[in-house]
Amino acid sequence: MLKLLRPAVTRVLTPLGRALIRRGISPDMVTAAGTLGTVAAALFFYPRGELFPGSLVITFFVLADLLDGVMARMTGPGSVWGAFLDSTLDRVGDAGIFSGLVMWFVVSGQRTLAGVALFCLVAGAVVSYVKARAEGLGLSCDVGLAERPERLVMVLVSAGLGGLGVPYILAAGLWLLAAASAFTVVQRLLHVRRQAASTSPRPLR
């Protein structure tokens, strides 16, 4: 759903990307810096219960995930290494965000929400794995209700508003995210199954 906003975001980030390239900063450097900042902010702010400032700082670094893509398109066809690095570090960033929330819930005695946050982390990883494995087998899997951008928006908005004192918003956001992630896993599995059923059997090893 958020893919519809990508052209507008690209136009906004293009001048910044061009300036960074002129200074010799590569897309891979931006990817690594964004992930490092995301994980550091999540593990510093969230376990302390500083959900609003933490969400703001994390959002700033998450934008690097869009900026590196803009820069990669400016410098020519994207490299295989760059795509691999970006996908791998996305998982690291997600782990940092949800680990910070889990730590906060445990410290504050909200063990049920700690479990929900942990489920969101695992389900998000499975969502990404299903797509990667399908594409590795030559199938398409570009479907899903809750892809990574949607998952990030849901968790950061609910955590930020929860940090401002909006009652029940964080719990509601996490439960909704858990349900959407589980639905997306099933959605992708069925999508891949339909494609696999229409192809000739072939050895997978």
From TrEMBL:
GO-annotated biological processes: phospholipid biosynthetic process
Binding annotation for Mg(2+) 1: D65, D68, D86
Broad class of enzyme this protein falls into: transferase
GO cellular component assignments: plasma membrane
Keyword set includes Hydrolase: no
Pathway(s) of this molecule: Phospholipid metabolism; phosphatidylinositol phosphate biosynthesis; Lipid metabolism
Pfam family, one: CDP-OH_P_transf
Taxonomic superkingdom: Bacteria
Membrane-spanning parts: 29-46, 52-71, 113-132, 152-185
Keyword flag Cell inner membrane: no
Residue positions of the active site: D90 (proton acceptor)
Function field: Catalyzes the conjugation of the 1'-hydroxyl group of D-myo-inositol-3-phosphate (also named L-myo-inositol-1-phosphate) with a lipid tail of cytidine diphosphate diacylglycerol (CDP-DAG), forming phosphatidylinositol phosphate (PIP) and CMP. PIP is a precursor of phosphatidylinositol (PI) which is an essential lipid required for cell wall formation.
Quaternary data: Homodimer.
Protein name: Phosphatidylinositol phosphate synthase
Organism: Streptosporangium sandarakinum
